[in-house]
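Quick start: read one record
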Amino acid sequence: MKRQIPSIALIASLLLLVFTGLTPRGGARGQHPRRSAHGRKVSGELVHRINKGRGDELVSVIVRPTEVWNDAIDSAVNSSGATTTHRFRNSKLRVLKLPASAAAALSLRDDVSYVALDKEVRTLGHLSVTTGADAARESDLTAGPVDGTGIGIAVLDSGIDPDHQAFAGATGSRIIVNQDFTGESRTDDPYGHGTHVASIAAGNGLISNGKYRGVAPNANLINLRVLNSDGVGSVSGVLDALDWIISNRATYNIRVVNMSLGMPAVESFEDDPLCLAVRDLVDSGIVVAAAAGNNGKDSAGDKIYGRIHSPGNEPSALTVGASNTFGTDGRNDDTVTTYSSRGPTRSFWEDDAGVRHFDNLIKPDLVAPGNKIVEAESFNNQIVTQNPQLDAGVSNNPQRKMMYLSGTSMATPAVAGTVALMFQANPTLTPNLVKAILMYTAQPLAGFNMLEQGAGQMNAKGAVRLAHLVRSDLNSNTPNGDPLLTISWLPVPRTSIAGQAFNWSRGIELDHTYLTGSNLISKYQRIYGLGNLLSDGVITGDGVITGDGVITGDLTMISDGLVMGSQIMTSNGVITGDGVPFLSIGALLADGAFSDGDILGDGVITGDGVITGDGVITGDLILQAQLAEIYGD
């Protein structure tokens, strides 16, 4: 959707110029590199705060210049009495502290692209067998079994207990980096969330004879502590950690980032600083796994839609919901947890008239086991201290203790660990190809729609198998439609785990629709390349979409022979596209199709960003996340 640059800014914002002395001067108008610029360039939460008479309050904001940070912006910042609290090494963003009214006025400059509030970020709340990770590690690959060796997984969380035996390696600790971005000058885990998350991704299985082994048990862990002793962080702290990754990714071979945290997704992914930073990482070749959130039901227990968290609302992120395995290795009884956040994404941008235009993306991308997961317990942590029933009773040795937690926070590192296995099997994969393979090989869960499960439940065994078959010589010059695999036949789209076989989804979810067809893995698609989105060339594509959904024509980003869906489907558990229509894809594309409280099939759509004086209310955000982590389904 094209967004025109307005001739004048909001009247309310113009009035602010009188009080701040700032004038909208500066460089030439520019455009965000991924979309046309649009009207309001300031967070709606900030405007609301000013409208409530709180314009003199000091706020911390993240400012994005249109092109580069220039002397004219510096002059305007200095004259407003602002303090620059942080500069990033690899980003033109800056964090400022200044009065709310001055921040809004700064957004009127032509050389300022957007001003966002620096908000709070919080945690979101028999694994190796049921995910297929054990089977993947034991697969007879040419290069030998995969266990994550040599792959760096960056864990942005509340820290990692360095003494826990789950992180021991053959020559010492596999936690090879420890950095704090909270200001507390510590990298251990007094809160208890990060240690559990890290062990799901890469716990070694030395405790209880491998019963609680992580998905990639020999991967290296990069501990980037962005959540403090109470499990709370800031956007600027997370941005600083992501900026650090850009600088150090080659040194530590960081191929995947785990973000089991988030905040309400209010601003469109095109403006949200976290989403923009995630896109930069993905464009550089790093997979970012982000938790969908734990707000799939309200305080009364009723199903709700529209509560995907940031940065899970970013299209390039690998957004993960939670499934419930009911403690069994077999997958025939698995479901989506009741608390796992559902799409569509309800982040939005506002035009000059204050009308909201929602992103309405299909999310999550897939689900993974996240209910009552037993993994490493950090020493004397706050979560278990306040909820002693979460200790799993595995050991009395503090270095071997295990605990229960539930939530999309637990599902996300299961996917991150699988990504590490995929990169070990084939280091040349791009993030988009990783994402496509995970969705194509996923298991559709019967009775759940695409806004609940994406393409289905992760299948680590199938994903690693397919990753290994992808050609290693693909690059930006590979013609669209060239063979994707090293074999001339298609692998059987079926996997057996714990003695039970299931079909692959054989499709991929896009921003507002989905594609099916074997050409997704038999032919190279240009959308798999760096710097692209999987949706590129599909909705606004380079060819013709015929009435039966078959994409034909002179396509430059996707090959022919693929079928595009016209309905969000409730799966019958077989393949993508089979089942019962749930919602027209046209509704996702239409502005104003949904409003807060509308009935969407079997639940109510909410989370369209009801702005209050202290931020955004999206239901029992913190309470729901904590209840999910403590009690699960």
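The CA atoms of residues 428 and 474 lie 8 Å apart.
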